[in-house]
Amino acid sequence: MTVKRNQILGVNLSVILISALVLGVIGIASGEKTTVTIWALSNFLGMDPLIEKQATAFEASHSNIDVKAEFFPWQAYWDKLLTSIAAGTGPDVIYQMHPTFLGPYIKGEVLLPLPKAQFNIDREWHSSAAKPWEFKGNYYGLQYLFNPHIFFYNKDLFKTAGLDPNRPPETWDELANYAQRLTMRDATGKIIQSGFAATLVQEDWLWANLIYVQGGNLLTPEGEVAFDTPEALKALQFMRDLVFKYKVNNRQFLGMEGFQTGKIAMMILYATFVAQMTDYPNIDYGSAHIPTPRRGMKDRSVMYGDWGTCITKAARDRGSVVEWATYDFVKLASSKEQHAEILMIGATSGPVRNDVLGDQVLIKKFLEKYPKYKPVVEKIPYTEYVGALPNWERVQKEALTPMFDRIFLLQWDAKKALDECVKTAKQILAEAKEVW
Amino acid sequence: MRCKIKYPHKRNKLSAEYSESAYIFLSPVILWFLIFTFFPIGFALYLSLHRWFAISPERPFIGLQNYEKLISDGMFLLCFKNTFRYVIMYVPLAVLVSLGVALILNAIGRLKSFLRTAYFIPVVTSIVAASIIWKWLYQPTFGLFNTILSLLHLPKQSWLTSPNQALFSIVIMSVWKNLGFNMVIFLAGLQGISETYYEAARIDGANRRHCLWYITLPLLKPTTTFVLIMTVLGAFQIFVEPYIMTDPPGSPLNSTRVLVLHIYEVAFRWLRMSYGASMAFVLFGIMLIFTVLQLKFLRAGERIL
After folding, report:
1. Do domains A34-147+305-381 and A149-300+390-435 have the same CATH topology?
2. Could you tell me which of A77, A228, A288, B6 has the fewest CB atoms within 10 Å of its CB?
3. pTM
4. Does the ipTM exceed 0.85?
């Protein structure tokens, strides 16, 4: 029995030794070339092939560098990013980062400021796309996406209701009027076609845009609540009226899939929803500027930041070769040519680089391919940066969503619901300062 | 009177060698548990006594401050209440329904295998896929359930869109999903009850109700204890169903915001890892108390012969 036990032990130890040797050899063999690792969201606005093309092009011009692009589904991306950075095994490049998540990453010192000698962001990027990434004089990311909210409407439903399909509503009164004409009910009074998605379709961003067009804001530049204002209350009351006074929509109806299936006639949503509508070619729809409270007002365009690319401290920790290779890769990926490609594949609804915006031939070609993005391109020149939205996801979940639930489910008065929301939001934003 | 019989334990050379071999073969699993279960638990406990924002380099020791904060954290208390409500609604329903189905299946002769498989299929179905389907079944305007209700001239329900109904809607889905699992355990327990007990009872004039109440249920007690404990533990850890079926997760009005969902969001979305760890330990403590109480009350009166 002792002999048998020793044999078992011997076999186990041999297996462990051989495995270690093999892994060591692999480790040595893989160490000959420098590798730059990129993490990106999988199938995010069709960027995957472009990112791989960028990786291949970079490898072709840098023979001693491998670029490894890895793609993850949404939730896995954020969970893995967080845990791997905490463990020190994160990527060199985070291809898609959003400024609303930026604070903890900067505070945790896991992102590298972009060297000013290599990246002339002030000059090359539209100010509304550069400022969201600026912190204490340094830039931590390069935005590639511009994605404001615009107005969508179903032209076929307009025709059926006797409305001009080329003349969408321009004011709130017109919106309410059109919505009532476009709402249909069955014999029991149940809505079977909604005139306007006043609820269930990004209610918080609808509300935010209705505040913006009045000249209001969500937060102050110092990151404090700026929606305890008459503009915010007016916007909220308008949404409440659309549901309970004009009865054009309710919480029992569909979300954005209602627009995709021709059951919702109008809605306000992020511009790149156009990419999601390609699966529904039978829906003839148009896009326009967001209706304003009164005629003659401009559809105010704001930016609080959108998707961009960052470089992590891991690139520096792995040595100067990796660090400079990473800067070179990001410079390639954020060049005018690559941004033109991003534009033409429809991964952005408008350009963020000044040279791309100023290229009239390119813009004309872009709008011929994506005519629905015309309102976006028209408003880029006057888009303003209104400040970061720190810890915004928590504000949305704990303050804004309950506010809309109270109004649309419990029929609370708009003022009462807004007051509760403001109270909760202030508390969350005060705590956010610890992390931001 | 209780009496315990002690069996004399003989230790011999042969047994010692087998024991050593056994430990050697068990060592990889023990190592696995140490690395991937006990170490993370220990580290979570350590984190709960510090303040850490996931990727921050600083991790100052703050003692029990995280736990003190929980007492006054309104959202945590709400999640606690929601989780309790879910446990109270789900556990009795899940156990009774699965026991009922097991009793019926045990009594029938034909189609037993087919029905057992049919009831077990939801158990092996992806919880995410099932949650998405049920979310659409519950859709108030176009969903199947309200369509059926309106065909039967019954009032339509708000289901997941109502703060009063959303949690119970999730309970129904969970009962359907886990029915098969408890059912097969009960079936195994029922099949372990000797037929001679029933024969003797029938001779003495017992009817079906008497057999069920005085023979089946008492002899099924160990199985019931196991099923109850596992169901309660599973109920406290509910996460996927409210996460998938409600949008945003925990809505409407945070009525489906349960503890594990809140812990996940606090730790991984808002990066407050140490605060999330403290919540996880409070949940662990509650589950431990429940399990101990269940074992104490459910096993009371057992005799060792």
Report:
1. yes
2. B6
3. 0.83
4. no
